[in-house]
């Protein structure tokens, strides 16, 4: 295998026109340069230089290796520049997983801030509502960051977990509902109502069911929907009441009212999980800070 360092010495000798001049440019002794060329010729299996009076000139093989040495030098310089850009956050690539209701309320403003500070960083977003799948994507190195609902359990080594905040649930009522005039509603006040489900079974619905159980009842879901916008439409039409997380109420239907819930107040925990090696990128660290602020 050819030695790249020796190829660079050869290139210096050819450019300088002599071993002595190359040694002066490189800070070597002429003897050391000659030894490097001899070792490279042994690796190449052919002569690389020929004498011309007091100097030397390249053979065809020598010119070939010198040209490749120049290409290698340019590639190394380009790699060093690219690495510096990555370390400083001028470039990079982040792969992010997020759940539906986090998109507008958390991800969009956080990424807008990130783009202003790091316009050269490429962001790949993918919607994944299954927390276990999102966590697995991070653990397996397919994603740098994931936003998930609920406790992430014990992630594998090399994965950082950060709690961004608690997303409280609120009562969503038709505009003319008898409870619409109250500033806060006890969860038990909705026990006899027909409910609109806006969450599928899992970590988003479980905190609500647990709070209802603590209030002494199980909600009667008359209509089921898996997105908050549609569920609000059902509430506005008078088909029932809803209890939805605040992150899902960024875009509110004009014909519903939203009221805080007390005694007990259900909430879901929102976490960010990230690969610790990815945090070496300044853009990811700053994105986490922005997500925490908006959460």
Main features:
single chain; alpha/beta; eight-stranded mixed sheet; two-stranded antiparallel ribbon; 9 helices
Summarize the structure.
With 295 residues, this protein is of the alpha/beta class.
Radius of gyration: 32 Å
Largest sheet: 8 strands, mixed
Number of helices: 9
What structural category characterises the helix and strand content?
alpha/beta
Helix and strand pattern: HHHEEHEHEHEEEEHEHEEEH
- In helices, the fraction of residues equals 40-55%
Give the low-confidence spans: none
**DSSP E strands, number:** 12
Distance between the termini: 55 Å
Rounded average pLDDT: 89
Notes on the protein architecture:
The chain has 295 residues and is of the alpha/beta class. Helix content is 41%, strand content 25%. It has helices spanning 4-16, 19-26, 30-44, 60-88, 102-117, 131-139, 206-214, 228-236, 282-294, and strands at residues 49-52, 55-58, 92-98, 121-127, 145-149, 159-174, 184-186, 194-197, 220-224, 242-245, 256-262, 267-275. Strands 3, 4, 5, 6, 7, 10, 11 and 12 form an eight-stranded mixed sheet that branches. Strands 1-2 form a two-stranded antiparallel ribbon. Helix 5 (102-117) links the parallel strand 3 and strand 4. The longest helix has 29 residues, at 60-88. The chain is rod-shaped and about 105 Å long. It starts with a helix and ends with a helix.
């Amino acid at each position: 295998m050819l030695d790249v360092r020796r190829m660079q010495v050869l290139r210096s000798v050819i450019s300088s026109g002599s071993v002595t001049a190359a040694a002066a440019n490189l800070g070597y002794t002429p003897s050391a340069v000659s030894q490097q060329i001899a070792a490279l010729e042994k690796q190449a299996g052919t002569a690389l230089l020929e004498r011309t009076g007091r100097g030397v000139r390249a053979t065809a093989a020598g010119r070939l290796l010198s040209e490749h040495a120049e290409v290698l030098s340019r590639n190394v310089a380009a790699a060093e520049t690219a690495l510096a850009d990555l370390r400083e956050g001028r470039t990079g690539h982040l792969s992010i997983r997020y759940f539906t209701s986090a998109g507008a309320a958390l991800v969009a403003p956080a990424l807008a801030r990130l783009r202003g500070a790091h316009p050269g960083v490429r962001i790949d977003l993918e919607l994944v509502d299954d927390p276990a799948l999102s966590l697995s994507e991070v653990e397996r190195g397919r994603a740098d960051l994931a936003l998930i609902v609920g406790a992430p359990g014990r992630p594998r080594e090399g994965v950082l977990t950060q709690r961004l905040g608690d997303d409280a649930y609120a009562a969503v009522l038709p505009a003319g509902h008898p409870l619409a005039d109250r500033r806060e509603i006890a969860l038990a006040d909705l026990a006899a109502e027909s409910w609109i489900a806006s969450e599928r079974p899992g970590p988003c619905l479980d905190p609500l069911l647990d709070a209802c159980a603590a209030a002494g009842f199980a909600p009667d879901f008359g209509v089921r929907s898996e997105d908050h916008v549609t569920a609000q439409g059902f509430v506005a039409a008078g088909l029932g009441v809803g209890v939805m997380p605040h992150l899902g109420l960024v875009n509110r239907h004009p014909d519903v009212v939203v009221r805080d819930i007390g005694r007990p107040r259900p909430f879901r925990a929102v976490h960010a999980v990230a690969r610790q090696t990815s945090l070496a990128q300044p853009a990811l660290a700053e994105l986490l800070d922005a997500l925490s602020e908006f959460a």
